[in-house]
Design goal:
The complex is a heterodimer of chains A (about 210) and B (about 200). Chain A has about 210 residues and is mostly helical. Chain A has a domain of about 140 residues. Chain A has eight helices and two strands; from the N terminus they run H-H-H-H-H-H-H-E-E-H. The model of chain A has no long low-confidence stretch (mean pLDDT about 90). In chain B, about 35% of the residues are buried. The chains are: A mainly alpha (about 210), B alpha+beta (about 200). At the A-B interface, helix 4 and helix 5 of A face helix 1 of B.
Chain lengths: ~210, ~200
């Protein structure tokens, strides 16, 4: 098993912090942790199955119609996710709203189909999808955690049994930084996180260069 | 010609396979979705009924905003008002609303039942407090506000960033009020239909 294909999407080629793909849902749904995790799970499912099917069909799809074919495959899996969420987790379906069907045009999915799955085998394509999907989910969850804690003073998870699903943080819930829940707060946070990841990448590159000398 | 046919066949085969898979998933999920949607509407109707008994359902044809209405009956079976199912459009597409009115067109209560509005902006209309700006209005001389300029400073700030959602809701609620005043006003609830509420 090629673990490099699996891990690259989580850190080195993280779709959100490094490749900067899928920014619309990243900024839009990261107001609550549960929304971020659900969106990440939806994207992971669609990415995994679309990569597998596109890799399987790559030799049969004529080059001139490859993009429409990829879109049909991706849109079908997105519709499946939409119907399943609507039927079995309606609260999450409601919270994700218009961003759930918009997974169809998420650049990560079409980008991996075109750049990876259409040129590689099924196993590598599946590992690439899992890595990228986990990387996207982790990035969304991390952003949502910071935004929700600072912006609302809460952490919203799935309600289980007597647990309502909402953890209230003292002090912050009384004095929240409301900007963090707005689009401006999301952009501000993305800017700081991107700067941090750039600094980390440059520092690692410098270390590698010094070690090779 | 051969390559053209091959391309067309591949596209057709992929679309046909996708349609078959989606039909199968729809077959499995549609009962659960229908049950959930019915539950949402029923709970919204009960929520806005203001404690009155919900009477018989009437479908409305030819009105762009009002799709159905129920009679609201008090505890002696007299007409107390009407409960309307309203359809309008916002930023994300269709929105459905249920609203209760007194016979003079005054809005008693309203709830946004379904929408695809933007989280953090138009979605705020799902909060029960959002409808407060419309409540108690709609009678002759006290119309439902249709523009932000007709709202207080606080209410106007609350709808900023989601003007299309506010516009859609105010249009539907105004249309509902007009429907009650012009079409339903003076209509007595038939004796035979009384008491067959929830």
């Amino acid at each position: 098993m090629n673990t490099k294909e699996l891990t690259k999407g989580i850190f080195r080629e993280n779709p959100t912090f490094v490749i900067m793909l899928g920014m619309c849902p990243t900024l839009a749904v990261t107001t609550q942790v549960i929304n971020a995790v659900s969106m990440g799970a939806g994207v992971l499912f669609v990415l995994l199955f679309s990569n597998i099917f596109i890799s399987l069909l790559k030799n049969y799809i004529p080059g001139s119609v490859r993009i429409p074919c990829y879109v049909v495959v991706i849109a079908s899996f997105v519709t499946i996710v939409e119907m399943v969420f609507h039927a079995y987790v309606p609260a999450v379906y409601k919270a994700l709203g218009v961003y759930l069907p918009l997974i169809v045009v998420n650049c990560i999915i079409l980008g991996r189909a075109e750049a990876f799955a259409s040129k590689n085998g099924v196993l590598d394509s599946a590992l690439d999808a899992i890595g990228m999907g986990i990387g996207f989910t982790l990035a969304l969850t991390f952003i949502a955690l910071i935004r929700e804690v600072l912006g609302n003073g809460t952490i919203t998870l799935m309600p289980i049994g007597s647990f309502s699903g909402v953890i209230t943080i003292p002090v912050l819930s009384d004095w929240p930084v409301r900007t963090m829940t707005l689009a401006a707060g999301a952009l501000l946070l993305m800017g700081y996180l991107k700067a941090f990841f750039n600094w980390k990448t440059e520092r690692s590159a410098k270390k590698r260069l010094e070690a090779s000398r | 010609m051969k390559s053209f046919l091959k391309t067309a066949f591949v596209l057709f085969a992929i679309c046909a396979a996708a349609a078959a898979v989606l039909a199968a998933v729809n077959q499995v999920t549609s009962p659960a979705i229908a049950e959930y949607e019915a539950g949402v509407v029923m709970s919204a109707l009960n929520e806005v009924s203001g404690g009155y008994t919900i009477g018989e359902n009437h479908d409305v044809q030819g009105n762009p905003h009002v799709s159905y209405y129920y009679d609201l009956l008090d505890n002696v079976g007299s007409s107390a008002g009407y409960l309307l199912g309203l359809v309008t459009s916002g930023y994300g597409g269709e929105m459905t609303v249920v609203a209760s009115y007194f016979a003079d067109g005054t809005l008693m209560a309203a709830k946004l039942v379904s929408d695809s509005e933007t989280p953090g902006l138009g979605k705020k209309a799902e909060n029960p407090s959002y409808m407060n700006k419309f409540l108690g209005r709609g009678a002759e001389g006290n119309p439902i506000p249709k523009a932000k300029s007709e709202l207080s400073a606080v209410d106007s700030a609350a709808v900023s960033g989601a003007s299309m959602t506010f516009g859609g809701l105010s249009r539907a609620l105004s249309a509902g009020s007009e429907f009650v005043k012009t079409t339903l006003a003076g209509e007595a609830v038939p004796q035979a239909k009384r008491g067959d509420g929830k």
